[in-house]
Amino acid sequence: MQFYCMNRETVAVSVKSLRPGAPDGIFYLEGGAVVHARFGNRNGLDAVRDALKLRDGPFRVDLNVRPPQRTIFEPWNKLLLEETWRQDEEGRRVANGEVNGKDSMNTSSSQPPRKALPPKQHSVLLASSRPTATPPAPRINRQLQRKLLFGAASLLLVGGVAYLSWRASREVPAVGSANAMPLPVPVPVPQAVVPPSSILLPLVQGVTEKEIVFGQAVPLSGSAKELGRQMKTGVEIAFEGINDAGGVHGRKLKLVAMDDGYEPTRTQVVMKALAEQQKVFGFIGNVGTPTAAVAIPYALEKKALFFGAFTGAPLLRKEPPERIKPYEIAVFAQNDKYGDAGFEGVARMLRRYKGDPSKILRVGYERNSADVHGAVNEILKNLRHVRAVVMVPTYRPAAQFVVMLKDKGANLIFTSVSFVGSNAFAEELTQLGKGYANGVIVTQVVPLPDSKSSVVLRYQELLNKYAPGEKPDFVSLEGYVAATLLIEALKRTGPELNTEALVATLEGIRGLDLGLGAQINYGPSEHQASHKVWGAVLDPKGVYQSLELD
Predict the structure, then answer these.
(1) What is the C-alpha to C-alpha distance for residues 150 and 199, in angstroms, rounded to an integer?
(2) Orientation of helix 422-432 relative to helix 474-493, angle to 10°
(3) Which end of the chain is more exposed for a tag (fewer CB within 10 A), N or C?
(4) Is the pLDDT higher at 47 or at 85?
(5) Cβ atoms 106, 128 nearer than 8 A
(6) pLDDT tens digits, one per residue of 520-549
(7) Is 127 exposed, middle or buried (0-12, 13-18, 19+ CB in 10 A)?
(8) How much is the mean pLDDT over the chain?
(9) Where do runs of H (alpha helix) occur along 96-196?
(10) Rounded to an integer, what distance in angstroms lies between the CA atom of residue 458 and that of residue 452?
């Protein structure tokens, strides 16, 4: 179990006891986490605890077998260490005559001779996890005894894990068939005679007894710098709020933000610096779709958490208004993966309504540029056929695009995704002149930042406290909501933190109410959390008003 958990495998481990009449069992590991177990008529943690009392016996490992259900939510290292301690306590009590040794499943005299299994099962025999209990030794100083035993247990644990990691890096288990493989000779589980809370656990990068460090690759310079600054602010106020309350299980949360300038080539450098130099535990609140195309593969390679990114989403979730026909919609999009994702969202919805995506007029501009003259000219050439423009831009080129077309008398409906940077977009429009902002629609994934929902009121309170002078903003609110959800998952995971345990906790969240007005739901194949879309429309003064979309 330890080997496959540390290698983050998805396997089913079938075990068989050699005791006459003893039950068989099966353990399911998914992505390195123990998620379900059955031993005889027992399930979950009870099944694991019973099965770990087996002294030896054959077992079989089948690769890529998905669990039928989830009954275990404890981190694997905590589970194994607690049971090791429990069994050693039992052994100590037997040795001291406090418990009849015949009552223990670990008594060696009850084991019959081992039997070989057919080769097709690719099985090996499980070595004894610890020696048979021996009579108590003469009493020595109890304080000295505790110190010696604690030191031995810690040394064995660290040595065992180091040896296992060395083996894993140098040996690849031979695969016997497409679905099964033999397990390497297991490393003996170190003995412990102290409670698990005092055992030195394997270190997890970015996690210490006092803090958890997260990284963030965001634009703090360039045309999208306001998006990065606001996302950073939202995460920081959530972290500072929980830190003032004592942290999560005694650990303070720390954010290390680095500037990628909204350029994928810089994102690659920043992600590597955060992971390999700053030693962050995971990533939260990265900004951008083209940058995410670089960041996500790196995070997956490092098996690190990548959470709450501010990135492009599918467009036109609602049916287009009846007064506008599908072929009357044009797309103004950034010329990169962000713009491509937005355009594909429009095309997908048009196919649903029997439109032809090849007839969509797409115009655009280059990333980190505000030169939209070519895009404006193309729209003007086709003005007779265009009544609405879906925009997938950043705020400065979006504002220039709207202003230039309105100056030419184009009476169009302009709608944008939230990645535009809603407040910065509104400010840019109002600075360019009166009336330009009026009627421009921006879809949102959070409510208006000056609304009265409970999560928004808490956000406003923390913003005033930790970022005085900052105005409520859609982007910082989104960052705050993402960080608040992460904090909830960290609380539920418990003090024994690792990436697999945290992801398993997140995937188990159902029906969580943060006060958004929409429930949060995750699952193994559902990582979006919320599908709610809020509408916002600018008035003549450049102030967002609620727009009902349902």
Answers:
(1) 8
(2) 170
(3) C
(4) 47
(5) no
(6) 888 887 888 888 888 899 988 888 888 877
(7) exposed
(8) 78
(9) 142-170
(10) 10
CB burial of residue 171 (10 Å; 0-12, 13-18, 19+):
exposed
Task: Supply the pTM of this predicted model.
Answer: 0.54
Task: Please write the tens of the pLDDT for every residue from 316-337.
Answer: 333 333 457 777 889 999 999 8
pLDDT band at 96 (very low <50, low <70, confident <90, very high): confident
Q: Indicate the class that CATH gives domain 211-313+452-529.
A: alpha beta
pLDDT at position 363: 94
Q: Contact 76/200 with Cβ under 8 angstroms?
A: no
Q: Which is it for strands 252-259 and 211-218: parallel, antiparallel or unpaired?
A: parallel
Residue 211, strand partner residues: 252
**What Å distances lie between residue 547 and 98, 533, 534, 537, CA to CA?**
72, 11, 7, 6
User: Encoding tokens for residue 501?
Assistant: 């345990």
Instruction: Please tell me the predicted confidence (pLDDT) of residue 358.
Output: 84
What is the structure's pLDDT at 136?
Answer: 41
Domain ranges (residues) in the chain: 2-198, 211-313+452-529
CA separation for the pair 393, 399 (Å, rounded): 9
Q: With contact defined as beta carbons under 8 Å apart, do 183 and 3 qualify?
A: yes
